[in-house]
Amino acid sequence: MKKTVLLSVILISFIAKSFSQKVSNEAIAQQVIQYKNDVRGPYKDIRWFCTDGSIRQPKDPCPDNIGPGVQHARYKDAVVSLGKSNHIYLGQILAYSDKVEFWDAENNQSRLKQYQIDKYLRAIDNGWINEKGQFYRGAIQSEDEEAWGIDFYKWLLTKDENLEKHYFLIRQSLKDIPHNGDDNLSQLMRSQSKVISDEFIQFMDLRVKIHGQPEASDIVKVIAFKNKYANQLSVNHKNKIDELVSTMQKFYKPIDIKSLVNKSSLFKNTPIGEKISNFIASHSSETKASLLIPDTAELLMAIRESILDEKRPMARLQLLDLSLKLEEIVFKTSPEWEPENLQQMLTKICYLGMATAGSGYIELSEWDQINLKTPGEKEESLTLETLTSVLENARSLVEWSSSMVKANYQHTVDVYTGFEPKAYGFIDDKIRGSIALYLGENVGELGDFIAKESSLTNKVMDIPNQSSFRGLNPGYAFGELVVVDGSPDDIEVHSDKIYIFQRPPADLKPIAGIATVSEGNMVSHVQLLARNLGIPNAALSDDNLKSLKKYSGQKVFYAVSNKGNIILKPEAKMNETERALFVKKERNEEKIEVPIENIRLTETNILNLRDVDASDSGKLCGPKAANLGQLKKMFPDKVVEGLVIPFGIFKEHMNQIMPNKDASYWTFLNIMFAKAERLRNEGVDETEIENYQLQELETLRKAIKEITLKPEFVAQLETDFKRILGEDLGKIPVFLRSDTNMEDLKDFTGAGLNLTLFNVSDRDKILDGIKAVWASPYTERSFKWRQKYLLNPENIFPSILVIPSVDVDYSGVLITKGISNGNEEDLTVAMSRGAGGAVDGQLAETYLVKINGGTQFLAPAREQTYNSLPETGGFLKKQATFETPILNQQNINEIRVLAKTIRKTLPKETQSDYDGAYDVELGFKDNKLWLFQIRPFVENKKALSSGYLESITPIIDKNKKISLSSKL
């Protein structure tokens, strides 16, 4: 008996522990394999679940006197445990789910998204975790799942807020959650073709066609393929091809527009009901795509704009279902509309864009900013400049719609990809099942047409759709091409290679060149470093990245011109001029020297931010503190109070003897640099020298993190913290910002290379944070950047700016220059929700602000989480939605006034001859503007003025007239 009790206690303890500890991806992957080979999959048994809450055996149905029940499987204990430990829910049964828990609002609707990913994996992987369990009779009852789906949407669509904030997600979920008997034939067609090509490689070309440019004529091609390979195909393969043909025939069966009446029965006498009735009456026999698509797109938009006027949840559900049918009409008929001239192409792009917006792939406020109106009846031509603007807007719409899919699903897909790599294809499948697929195709054709007219043609290997490339920063590079079709964060990069990423990595080390699908935003630290250092940088499409994968590992030449056209070609095709660009130079040529002749290391007292200004930069402290002190003088109500820990205090601590060494920290550092120079003079390989330095720096960095802070310094910090910030040390949260003398030099920005600690509250954490900030210039990333571009990287001194946290509603960056158009008078503003916005490559809301009035919307925000700064310290991740813009007109007007003041006053106040643009970090709290940093906006003049880059930049006649009747 005692033994049984003991075993029970051990088992309960083990289960409790497993619930609290996350299961590794490797262990989950093993679970998945087990379930694939289990005849019950992730389920352990089948039970009746009665209305009164009782559970009964499969052969013992719920009796009539307690009401009806439902029969379905129960999850295995390990599946339940995984949900509690990792918030991963495998094999979800809807009838077994609570509506609120399934909507999972606290976790960005993770469970709903997991349900969709699970269905995708089952479609492409022979049932996935139910490979053998998909025939486990009684585990899932389709009629119960459908009844649950209807009940779920009745509940979900009652609240306006859900539709306002999650229109895209709710509409997408209707494709996967059973509620009316419809099938997602589009996804089934793609998944069936993928399964065939995975098993029979000769089918790959057809699969690519079906995924990339699907049309009804593909049915004939699939049948012809089966006949061609009849002797090589197994019976199983032939059956699968027959199933695909059957699916395609159902999918491409003309939609009976009259049948849409059945999906509009609940709102016949409403304004939107009348529009739907008129559409059905007018188009019941219409087959011409060029006439059908425009009216369908307008109705899609009308449904989206009016759905909140309809308050009945079942009527809302019917409107959404009708919207999906309308999207299907556009998707199916788009290939049939073949524009013959420019006028028709612009018209088609306009209505495909409208249909994309009406289908929820961008927000309505974003559609309002896109100018895709068709040319007027009396217009006969457009200037090249106007046409290019239309192209840029259309291209933006394609990018924004793709980023909407990624913003909603990427995190959940990344979680699943950790244990099931096939999940990574889910986002691509979603995009290819959308109208954006055809919109992108037509925008590419328009781009090719404009490229010919303007001579602004990309030359990127031999891949298709080259007009999707656009340059961000000018420069040129030579090195191995590395194409990364996944998360870039775990990739070890090298300074002599050129990288193609899905998105920019968070902490980019030196590289030769870069191109990304998701460019982040044009004022992130990564983009500013690339711009500053002349690293060629471009944006491309998902399809472009896939096309380039076959060249990964090859040596290539890469150049982005001053106007943004791009060259990417194999080493063998480089001409003599291009080869001459990479003739080995002397080591110190074109490097920058950190000035130290005026540094004052004798100042070992903490400084009040009010007592420093721009003249102290590089002398007492770095430019962050010096310039913020200057801003405090100029805008006292827009800058917080602060303390500055000067260079001298750092140096004083570095003069202490290093533990287990016979020298001080500072001497240890300089011995390392001296030895490295000696090895270099002896001809030792640079990689070996760098490895030696990085090992020594790691030793130094660890030692600095454990350095003993001088008692007199800690005492002064406590006194001045209370005197200047008004509270005892550790009672209010602060930012600790590294501020070195290597930042904001004339030709080197150093943006984001060293440590900033967010919202540190605890006293001991602040003290430890000071040491961590002092150690941060000796990280591998920081060292590699400055070693590559600085002559004297050993003479780096960090000061620290200590300022109280402001829990801003949104924050970001202002550049007092139009980056996208090069206009010195305009402004560039990028803003994200919460603290620390835009600087780390977030997909930020971005504007070109005209200094004398007017704005151009460049990009929407697409981050589903943001940083909030609680008074207790640290940060909380909060959820964001995209239905309303971040900045309001009052904010933009205030930014415009701020920029004018900075331009006019700052050079005068600092007695500086600097006449370039400024990089300003700012935020808003309750519509009040706060300033956090200002620095020169450093561009790479060499790249901008390079003779080679100038030679590949075509001269464009913006006023050239293009006839709208021009043949494509």
Largest sheet: 8 strands, mixed
Total count of strands: 26
Q: Low-confidence spans: pLDDT under 50, at least 5 residues?
A: 1-19, 585-589
What is the radius of gyration computed over CA atoms, rounded to a whole number of angstroms?
A: 31 Å
Give the name of the CATH superfamily of the largest domain: ATP-grasp fold, B domain
Domain Pyruvate phosphate dikinase AMP/ATP-binding: 620-942
Protein name: Phosphoenolpyruvate synthase
Keywords: ATP-binding, Kinase, Magnesium, Metal-binding, Nucleotide-binding, Pyruvate, Signal, Transferase
GO molecular function, one term: pyruvate, water dikinase activity
Describe the structure.
With 968 residues, this protein is an alpha+beta fold. It folds into six domains: 2-182, no CATH class; 187-212 and 217-251, no CATH class; 255-332, no CATH class; 339-454, no CATH class; 458-580, 3-Layer(bba) Sandwich (Glucose Oxidase, domain 1), CATH 3.50.30; 607-940, 2-Layer Sandwich (D-amino Acid Aminotransferase, Chain A, domain 1). Helix content is 44%, strand content 14%. It has 32 helices and 26 strands. The chain has an eight-stranded mixed sheet. Strand 11 and strand 12 form a beta hairpin. Mean pLDDT is 87; it is low at 1-19 and 585-589.
